[in-house]
Amino acid sequence: MPSRGEIKSEKILVKDIFSRMWFRVPEYQRPYVWGREEIADLLDDVTFAMTEKPDFEYFLGSFVFQSKPAAPDSGQEFDENDLLDGQQRMATLLMLFAVLRDLAEDPDAKDDCQKCIYQKASKYKVIPERTRLVFAIRDEVQKFIDEFVKADGGTNREDDLKRMVSKGGDVSVRNMAAAILEIRGFFRENPNTKPEDLLQFLLNKVLLIYVSTEDLEDAFRLFMILNDRGIPLRNSDILKSMNLGALESEEEKVKYAKMWEEAESELGDDFDRFLNHVRTILVKDKARLSLLQEFEDKIYNPKERDKATGQKKPVLLKKGRETFELIERYLGHYRTLLGGQNYDETGGSFEFDNLIKVMLTGLPATDWVPPLLRYFDKFKYDRILEFLKRLDNKFSADWICQYTPTDRIAAMNKIIQAIDDANTVDDLFSTDVFDIDEGSLVRMLDGAVYGRRFARYLLLKLDYLYQNHDQRMHFETLSVEHVLPQNPTEDSQWVKDFSEEERNEWTDKLGNFVLITRRKNSSQGRLDYSEKRKRYFEKNIDTCPNSLRVLRSEKWTPTELKANHKTVLKKLGKHYGINVDVVSAVKDVNTDGSEVPNAE
Fold first, then answer.
1. What is the dihedral of CA 126, 127, 128, 134, to 10 degrees?
2. Which residues make beta-bridge pairs with 479?
3. Of 252 and 541, which is predicted with more confidence?
4. How far is it, in rounded angstroms, from Cα 526 to Cα 310?
5. Is it the case that residue 593 has pLDDT exceeding 70?
6. Which residues contact 209 (CB under 8 A, 6 or more apart)?
7. Looking at 156-222, which runs of residues are DSSP E strands?
8. Which of 69, 30, 4 is nearest to 217 (CA)?
9. I need a surface site. Which of 43, 167, 240, 514 has the fewest CB within 10 A?
10. How far is CA 409 from the centre of its chain?
11. Considering the chain, what is the average pLDDT of its residues?
């Protein structure tokens, strides 16, 4: 055991790890995430080494731990080691021993496996019962270990394990159940690999290298250095460990580690994105560094100087409780606003939730989320639908008008700053941060939109504008479809109704498109209107209000197409606060001089 301040490193056989050492997965560690590929690689590598080089030692990898001597006064009765790196491999080895125990026929092999998993209590030797690997704060995981790993025959319960994989719940439990099934499947697929043979090789020839220290700061430093060297830890893992290390109370460490892990399990890969949203709310500038460096260099210990004063920018947040409280608060906002359950709070309507769904589905990025979170944090539900519409219009208009991502992010950051500065919602809405480039927007809407990424979004928005918001919007698979096809056959009614000049001008304009709730079918897409409407459109537009409106038309000639184009432009213009007739040169007459009607 290293002394205080000493960092120790040695190679060690698996049999010594799983007979002399005891491990704890601490609060700051991420869940168990190994999947089929990682487990298959471990089993393939070990069995290959056993078969091809049975007399040579095989190096399995490394692990890092903080050694913690017994401290009965603080509730720790025995020596134990907090795993900083290596928990995925150690947990997998523990489950491998359980599978070997349950598949082996030799009673001695079964007994040796069980001793690797846990120490049986003996009142005569005054030896307590101890499990080789315990999981701090993760009660569900520890229960799973007790029931399926520690218990003799636990891994034989494949039906129960399959149910645990499919039913959801704790992410570590799901992945561990899948891991046991994967290990058992390996032995079914490789009947020549005997459990007893693999056990003997694993215990006596497989080794790892460990790095250990008693000092918590050294332990965290190792944790972070390993991440820089490519160990697969996420920035959020290290951010969590950094802030847990700043807490003094064990009770708080457990509380916030559990909060963090539950959020990580709930949001999955979106959790780092959520943390970036929180960073944006604080910094109000485009991220240029990793998430961890952004927090360290711009929030906790700003390196930049204020251009006006020359002084270092102020600390925006303290590590520890203040950080966890802020993240917990914004997690609540995030779940509330994006959870689709705002009907009662927004006037007895799904209009807010439906617009959120349109934005999440149709917009190219989520840079609009930080201003929404900040608005809710300050003003709650006060005129929040009006704010969301302004926010959506600003972000989407800048995108449609081909502003760069950097410009769009800067516009969102200006809105956050305006929210910070505003005393009331009226103050916020009186600023110019929601202003859009009206002329450019109308030119883009009035031009050819086919092939542009924003075409689907505009059609989604039209569905939103025609939607009865007493109901939720439903759409999964969506395709953008021409009404007048791009390449009609020479003998079609389309060619008779539209001149070549009219087809060239109008085929790819917004008024000639609808959304359908299926993948496109090019052969049916070229049918004449009456057949296309009946055979292709009718069954595939039932949840698309704008498409239903368009396809009420009994025919589709230049008159209907132009009328619909005029209608959708005016509908969108009204939503964006633009008088289309004033800003644009939208033609209101047909080629014969007659007025184009509205298609409402």
1. 160
2. 516
3. 252
4. 66
5. no
6. 9, 10, 11, 12, 59, 61, 62, 63
7. 206-213
8. 4
9. 167
10. 20
11. 87
Residue with tokens 């057949």: 531
User: What confidence tens digit (pLDDT) does each residue in 394-435 have?
Assistant: 999 999 999 999 999 999 999 999 999 999 999 999 999 999
**In angstroms, rounded to a whole number, what is the distance separating the alpha carbons of residues 68 and 48?**
36
Burial of 492 (C-beta count, 10 Å sphere; 0-12/13-18/19+) = middle
Query: Which residue carries 């025609």 as its tokens?
Result: 466
Radius of gyration over every alpha carbon of the chain, rounded to an integer in angstroms: 31
Q: Tokens 């032995």 map to which residue?
A: 187
pTM over 0.70: no
Nearest to 417, CA basis, from 252, 285, 313: 285
**Of 26, 32, 29, 28, whose CA–CA distance to 68 is shortest?**
26
Which amino acid makes up residue 16?
Answer: D
What is d(CA 240, CA 290) in angstroms, rounded to the nearest whole number?
15
Task: Say whether pLDDT at 594 is over 60.
Answer: no
Q: Give the three-state DSSP class for 580.
A: helix
Type of residue numbered 374: R
With CA atoms as reference, report the closest residue to 483 among 368, 404, 563, 422.
563
Cα(261)–Cα(183) distance, integer angstroms: 26
Round to whole Å and give the CA distance between 233 and 93: 20
Sign of the torsion angle spanned by Cα atoms 274, 276, 281, 285: negative
- What pLDDT does residue 212 have? 84
Strands 206-213 and 58-68: parallel
Using alpha carbons, select from 147, 120, 41, 45 the residue that is nearest to residue 88.
41
Contacts of 98 (CB under 8 A, 6+ apart): 113, 117, 148, 149, 150, 154, 155, 180
Q: Copy the structure tokens of residue 72.
A: 């009965």
Secondary structure tally for the chain: helices H, strands E: 28, 10
**Mean per-residue pLDDT, 299-307:** 85
CA distances from 467 to 296, 340, 464, 474 (A): 46, 16, 5, 11
Residue 351: which residues within 8 A CB-CB, separation 6 or more? 385, 469
For residue 432, give both structure tokens.
């110019």
349: its two tokens: 């309507």
Length of the chain: 600
Of the listed ranges 195-199, 350-354, 511-515, 578-582, the one predicted with least confidence: 578-582
Question: Is it the case that residue 333 has pLDDT exceeding 60?
Answer: yes
The residue with tokens 């110019």 is 432
d(CA 550, CA 564): 7
Cα separation, 483 vs 273, in Å, equals 38
pLDDT in tens, 172-193: 899 999 999 999 999 999 999 9
Provide the 10 A C-beta neighbour count for residue 140.
Answer: 13
- Among 200-214, 297-311, 488-502, the range scoring the smallest mean pLDDT is 297-311
- What's the CA dihedral at 414, 417, 421, 422 to 10 degrees? 60
Q: Which two tokens stand for residue 124?
A: 């005569």
Phi, psi for residue 154 in degrees, rounded to 5: -60, -35
